[in-house]
Amino acid sequence: MASSHLRKVRSFVRRPGRITKAQQRALATLLPRWGIPYSQSRIDLDEAFGRRAPRVLDIGFGDGEALLTTAANHPGVDYLGVEVHEPGIGHLLVLLEKAGLDNVRIIDRDVVDVLDHMIEDATFDAVNLFFPDPWPKKRHHKRRLVQPEFVAAVARVLVDGGLFHVATDWADYAEHTREVLARCPDFGAVPAGELGGDPLSFRPPTKFERRGLRLDHVIDDQYYRVRSAAPSASTRSP
Ligand SMILES: C[S@@+](CC[C@H](N)C(=O)[O-])C[C@H]1O[C@@H](n2cnc3c(N)ncnc32)[C@H](O)[C@@H]1O
From residue 94, how far is each of 22, 61, 101, 164 by CA, in Å? Predict the structure, then answer.
């Protein structure tokens, strides 16, 4: 059964945040250009981007400034950003229009639903989860995005050898992430020094990273690669 049917706990709370007129206009007029509507069926990302290029999923891009910088620096890579915070989506749309970038698409929806319903297996070369909401109180830990079912869903949509990059400024969330990923047989941890300048591991400073640094938090970047599937008995050479 798809995990969203089981999942009653969301990793976010929708708060009626302030949205500017420019962001409202962007949602109305630019989302049809850069957005992909949520659907309950698998989507064709080659068609959505109009080409076949390496692809990265950015989960919870916030105000989108880091995603814009990354996409502008890597025009040969396509980025799918998934976010639920509409002022942030509007902000990114304004930036995309100004920059005239065509290698970003946006889905306005809980990423758990998007992974369950819209994304084919082995779709992305990398998945970024930068500064997920920390939910520091113990009674809220169940709201954290990093959970065994969630990382299994991330592994499913990554290609063999695909990169999962998690960054956080919360020591307890970093520890939690290590524990969950250590128990996931699909992933192996990769030391930062072994990335060899992989452009897909690029992460510019983000708004929430700056906030963490102001609070004297330590920034923790973790990298994992999907382990290659072992050859099945029928394909193994004698
Ligand atoms: C702490 S902010 C980090 C934003 C950005 N990555 C950064 O580093 O500045 C976390 C973001 O994740 C989004 N988010 C949380 N749960 C989500 C979910 N299930 N699906 C999509 N976005 C989600 C929130 O709306 C929020 O904008």
Answer: 8, 14, 11, 28
Residue linked to tokens 């080659």:
46
Distance 119 CA to ligand 1 centre (A): 19
**How high is the mean pLDDT in each 10-residue block of the chain (238 residues)?**
60 86 97 97 98 98 98 98 97 98 98 98 98 95 97 98 98 98 97 95 96 97 90 50
Burial label, 235 (beta-carbon count in 10 A; 0-12, 13-18, 19+): exposed
CB 53 within 8 A of CB 124: no
What's the 133 CA to ligand 1 centre distance in angstroms? 6
Quick one: tokens of 105? 């698409």
Q: Active-site residue 133, yes or no?
A: yes
Strands 55-59, 78-83: pairing kind: parallel
Residue with CA closest to ligand 1 atom 15: 12
| Domain 34-226 class in CATH | alpha beta
Pick the closest to residue 55 from 115, 149, 130, 128 (CA basis): 128
Predicted pLDDT at 7: 52
Collapsed DSSP state (helix, strand, coil) of residue 205? coil
Closest CA to 156 of 186, 132, 112, 113: 186
Alpha helices (H) in the chain, listed in sequence order: 3-6, 21-29, 31-34, 45-49, 65-73, 86-99, 111-117, 148-157, 171-182, 207-214
| Number of alpha carbons in the 13 Å side-chain half-sphere of residue 56 | 28
Phi/psi at 102 (nearest 5 deg)? -115, 5
